[in-house]
Amino acid sequence: MSLSFDPKTLRDLAELLSDTGLSEIELAEGDRKVRLVRTLAQVHTQLIAPPAVAHAPAHAPVHAPANAPEAAAEHRVDPAKHPGVVKSPMVGVAYLSAEPGAAPYVSVGQTVEAGATLLLIEAMKTFNQIKAPRAGTIKQIFVAPGAPVEFDEPLLIIE
Q1: Residue 136 backbone dihedrals phi, psi, to 5 degrees
Q2: Positive or negative, the Cα torsion across 9, 12, 17, 18?
Q3: Would strands 85-87 and 154-158 be described as parallel, antiparallel, or unpaired?
Q4: Is the pTM of this model over 0.85?
Q5: Which of 18, 57, 65, 94 pairs as cysteine with 143 (C-beta 3.0–4.6 A)?
Q6: Which pLDDT score is estimated for 8?
Q7: Do 92 and 24 contact (CB within 8 A), yes or no?
């Protein structure tokens, strides 16, 4: 197989990322390499040797807040303006529990102490505990289990 970097091939690979739920694909042939990484809104494609960058649209799912059934629309708070927002300190994948099928670390309405584990973010094959910066009550959770998160993205609100 010969690696082709035409726009149709790149779109096909981006669609494959979306259809399979993969977060990245890397193909190499000789000194040519293509790596596609899916983020929340798009797929970044980086061509290596020769260096160039191309962008292809992705069909990344938009995740709803994990507590959507429990909160009425009028009680929603703009997370960027809320003083109790806990933001992601890194890019990675959010996990609300220690393992699949286990109870989540926190849920809406739960009271937490400062330093309590709120969730995990997997980055570079390392699970990082995201801890409560202060004591309070979980008011909203913005991420779904297994959802990709960006740096500084709101994760939840503690009041």
Answers
A1: 165, -165
A2: positive
A3: antiparallel
A4: no
A5: 94
A6: 76
A7: no
